[in-house]
Amino acid sequence: MSYGTRTDHYPATxxxxxxxxxxCVLTTAPVAIAMTRVEKGPTQDLLYNFHKSxxxxxxxxxxxxxxxxxxxxxxxxxxxIEPWQKxxxxxxxxxxxxxxIAMPIVGYTANSVYGAPTPFFGLFNLPPxxxxxxxxxxxxxTLHRWVGYFLIVIxxxxxxxxxxxxxxxxxxxxxxxxxxxxxxx
Length: 185
What we know:
two-stranded antiparallel ribbon
């Protein structure tokens, strides 16, 4: 994702979508870890269903975020940032968009070919998108898991960079994405 032409801050819709997605992602990662470590039964089923519902939510929010980014744009890069940092920032943001869209799609596809339901917070089940194929499901679940590990690395990098800008550089990079109560909307 490249920088836009805005000079002030991110639009309110961008901030809202960013923080909603952050909450979902920071919730679903520990749920994913927990669901594989508890005994089979109702608790594990509940965790799996919650994980799937959050994945669908992340996909929907990311589609809205991508449309919002294309329509509303983003602020120009802080003029004090080195060119290499702009390049890394752009790569990290692009990776976040791609992975946060691809990850739920791969999970949903894996779930479909496994033959398991994909519930959305108990309201309804998404229809399967492909026929049952357990070998393909195993491959897709493995891909989903490894992309998740890579995504964690990218997210930690993103958070680390935001904290670096806020605490060490003390520039406006993080402030442009904070809600009003913290300096934003």
